[in-house]
Amino acid sequence: MTEQDNAETLCEQVRQAYRERSPLRIVGGDTRAFYGRAVEGRTLSTSEHRGIVHYDPVELVISVRAGTRLSDLEAALAHHNQMLPFEPPRFGEASTIGGAVATGLSGPRRPWAGAARDFVLGTRVITQEGKLLRFGGEVMKNVAGYDLSRLMAGAQGTLGILSEISFKVLPRPNATHSLRLTMPIDEALKKLAELGRKPLPITAAAWHDGGLHLRLEGGQSSVKATHERLGGDHLEASFWQELRDHSLSFFQGTGDKALWRLSLPPNSGILALPGIQENEVLYDWAGSQRWVKTSLDAETLRRLCQEAGGHATCYTAHQDGGASEPFTPLNPVVAKYHRNLKRELDTYAIFNPGRLYAEL
């Protein structure tokens, strides 16, 4: 892995933008440009700011520069039989860890291990004045007052530029086995509700193409016993990487339909969506996250999702047929707090303006 500290160059670029009141389009590997609204501004790339700053395998802590590629970081962790527990998606070889945290996206293990922000211990952030400030630290309880580090997860660069992130990492499981149980979706949801009430070593659960897919991870005896109990057909472990990275055939070529992510409460039933066929829905996170290919209008889809206690995000907002606003509109009270926070941390709107919402 090539290491390079480019922090001062990035700080100077921000200082110049602050002086000129000129917006910046912040990118790492630029593999997540589809997620959120398009940004107009001068490109500021963190891709040359990369490398591992500190790694203590015994303490399960690693600090890494934001431009470090996910593939390089995960390879370094795998060398010590460790991993990022939240399974950040890669949308290309150029995917960076800064982009993974900025978007706050997590993979199939999310309901059982936690989200990206749950494993962020601390950050170094470039502020609007071009200052490099540290927030948090390298232990779970090293924060006094407001924790800005976790706020950066999912902010998509609208509040500052991630320069460095410290993570809690975990050992890889001793044993793993993936299986497929052939069953319709209604049976699969009942099965998942039943399994969720038992102490089983499940770390991923998805329904796709007429089958319930499960991943078992943990101790050898636990995984073996659960596998023998559930039965099913063998499933290649690569299925979970393809699901994580949206490289399954389901995600390829949505045509004139938009791709939506529906986030619903645990144990939600089948959501009645007009005009949507069974093969146009993929269930992940034991049914709490659902991928839908549809030409249904955004207002109707979001209303149905909200009635079920969830929300909907459009992943193809930049394409024909996509929603004009990828994220669910904020209610007036929440929007006010978002605007106040943006104004405090980015007074002149130089950091990815409009990436989340037009007014932010």
Walkthrough of the structure:
- The chain has helices at residues 7-20, 70-79, 97-103, 110-113, 148-152, 185-195, 220-230, 238-244, 298-307, 332-345, and strands spanning 24-27, 42-45, 52-56, 61-65, 82-83, 120-126, 132-136, 161-168, 170-171, 175-182, 202-208, 211-218, 233-234, 258-263, 281-284, 289-294, 311-314.
- The protein has 360 residues and is an alpha+beta fold.
- The strands form five sheets. It has a five-stranded antiparallel sheet. A four-stranded antiparallel sheet has the order 11-12-10-13.
- It is globular and about 65 Å long.
- Keywords: FAD, Flavoprotein, Oxidoreductase.
- This is Glycolate oxidase subunit GlcE.
- GO terms for molecular function: FAD binding; glycolate dehydrogenase activity.
Q: Kindly report the CATH topology of the largest domain.
A: Uridine Diphospho-n-acetylenolpyruvylglucosamine Reductase, domain 3
| Euclidean distance between termini CA atoms | 36 Å
How many β-strands, per DSSP? 17
Q: Helical proportion?
A: 25-40%
Structural class: alpha+beta
Biggest β-sheet, characterized?
A: 5 strands, antiparallel
Helices and strands, in order, run as HEEEEHEHHEEHEEEHEEHEHEEEHEH
Which CATH C-level class of the largest domain is it?
A: Alpha Beta
- Average predicted confidence as pLDDT: 94
Q: Helices, strands, pairings?
A:
Elements: H1 7-20, E1 24-27, E2 42-45, E3 52-56, E4 61-65, H2 70-79, E5 82-83, H3 97-103, H4 110-113, E6 120-126, E7 132-136, H5 148-152, E8 161-168, E9 170-171, E10 175-182, H6 185-195, E11 202-208, E12 211-218, H7 220-230, E13 233-234, H8 238-244, E14 258-263, E15 281-284, E16 289-294, H9 298-307, E17 311-314, H10 332-345
Parallel strand pairs: 1-2
Antiparallel strand pairs: 3-4, 4-8, 5-9, 6-7, 6-8, 10-12, 10-13, 11-12, 14-16, 14-17, 15-16
